[in-house]
Design brief:
The complex is a heterodimer of chains A (418) and B (295). With 418 residues, chain A is of the alpha+beta class. In chain A, helix 8 crosses helix 9 and helix 17 runs antiparallel to helix 18. Chain B is mainly α and 295 residues long. Helix content of chain B is 72%, strand content 1%. Chain B contains 13 helices and two strands; from the N terminus they run αββαααααααααααα. Chain B is flat, with a radius of gyration of 24 Å. Classes of the chains: A alpha+beta (418), B mainly alpha (295). Chains A and B meet through helix 3, helix 4 and helix 17 of A and loops of B.
Chain lengths: 418, 295
Amino acid sequence: MLVKLTKSRVAGVAAATMLAAGTAQAEVEIEYWQYFFDARVAAMEQLIENFESANPDIKVTMTHFPYADYRTKVAAAIPAGEGPDVVQLFYGWLNDYVAAELIQPLPNDAFPPSMIEDEFFPMVGAMREGDNYWALPTAVRSLALFYNKTLFDEAGIGGPPETLDELIETAKMLTKTDAAGNLTQVGITAGMNAQDHHWFREVLVRQFGGEPYLDDYRTVNYNSEAGIAAAGFYTGLVNEHKVSAFGFMDEPQAAFKAGRAGMHIDGSFRIGSLNKTRGLKWGVTELPANSDGMRSNYSSYWVNAITTKAEGEKYDAAVKFMQYVTSDEAMQVWLDVVGELPAKPSVGLTEANANDEVFGPFIRGLAYANTTKFANESAQRQLLIDMVQRIDIEGQAVADSIAIAAEAEQELLNEYYK
Amino acid sequence: MYDRLSIRQKQIVWAWAFLAVPILFYVVIRFYPTANAMVISFQNWNLLGDRTWAGWANYAKLWNDPVFWKVFRNTFAYLLIGTPVSLVISFVIAYHLDRLRFMHGFLRMLYFLPFMTTAVAMAWVWRWFYQPVPIGLFNNFLATTGIPQVEFLRSTTLALPAILAPAVWAGLGFQIIIFMAGLRAIPRSYYEAARIDGVSTWTILWEITIPLLRPTIVFIVVFSSIGFLRIFDHVYNMTTNDPGGPLNSTKPLVLMIYQSAFTDFNMGYAAAQTVVLFLILLIVSLVQLRILRDN
């Protein structure tokens, strides 16, 4: 299923006119690939149009695929000399793409590392390897605490919790059970399968005084007192305070959408689907701080990079295109069309954006966010899912369960980085 | 050249010409990928980079992987529970349905319907049946009667049978139709002779019906065994939040292969598991054919 959006007819006429006029200017055509997501495709179409009118000698063709086939197609196409000159990839795939020689470093004259480090949010530093940056994002995502305004009013709660202690107290007021003692409404959703594994790694472990990983995310470090306290807090929501249940209503976001959960931690990408949920009155606030007022967040992003296929004039065109899609203008378009947050504080932290009722909490969260360097995100998430299952289903002690998870994750990282 | 061939030779030429099409198809679609998978099982490949030779490393990893052995046991649990249970239920239904005249066609249609339903849709409906209060059908019923709710899918012991149940149900329709065809194929005269001799119904069942159904039983056992050994759709769709979970208690071999290949992108390891699955299927089928055919 390959969908091509070419403006070849327009371009053809333009080329013909130019030839006729005798001012033949060689037109460079470059190809851009991303995975299919409605709003992202619409935003990119707009960016390509702007870019082409500013650079009439360059034509950009966008191709997009369903997410499930994306990696396979990219992997097959580039080594065969087909496929994109500029490609979109998840930040966590960078190592694989570099190792497989699918992408080339961004040139230092057009993208000086010192400039990137000054202008972009700090987590973009993960895209640097050696003296160069290899890829740059247009937009980033972070986590925040969504809350159901109707349920808050019903329970007579003034506003969303500011600290972890308040979180538990608020959740208690929002929890409802039936006569048999089964939960029918949870104070806060819980499930490592959703975004909670990021909340645990980058937020809770740090808030309980720990450092989840050392050595540039190559050494697991959450098997510590802080990690045990964080895991105890997290599973305590279910076992001790009984304000939540794992697997309640199948999926955390389903429970929140159905109005059966008072609070829910999720990413900025959830905004769109919550807006489409009829009858749901929701608000969003920053993730709660610990008792010392310390906050943390997790941020992730998709990046664009120049592939090894781009050479000569196509390479120059690709560099220009990369410069445009990482410009302030492109970031504002991306925020307006997709709802994803700008990757530069100069755009994100404008008065209007940072105080926006919906985007504000996410953008403020970016300032103190951390980005996990995953070797295999789904496998690493699975280890935390299993950690919680052992505690919840098998009644294993938190310290024992976290030790097993940490050991397994270290093994996975060792194998990846060997 | 062609003209000088004899009629018999011409027939052979034409036979080969027609056979060449399916042979070519099988070589390209089946045999080449199968052989390729066996080669990949001795390599390291993450889909992006080059393939490098790994020797027996993938098989050694498999041997030392506790998850693999857990999955191995699960796979046989699906087989050893699923096959006899579905065989007995489908035979009992077919046996009685065969004697029923009233609404026979309608009932047969009802039993066959699940077989035509897509596994994905069925798995999701059952997944919601099994949910805890407030959305699960079974648990809502239990809650109204005051019985504590059962965590069907969040239990390391109950989840596997809970997932197996709809898989058995889905296959019943097909097995019932095959059994009924088998029952109809038994000559009436045997039953008439037995009845004249005054033999009990039970004896007729044991001495005539079941022995004469042997070919049907062999077919169904082999067919459903292969089906249960390859179970995937039901498990994956009922546990997408934690595929094969909780704690790998429901993960069959095919799901482990899928995850190794398409979430871990470890093609060599996935291919090694595929070769093991191939050998299991081969051995199980050969053993069944032998046991059920001989004596």
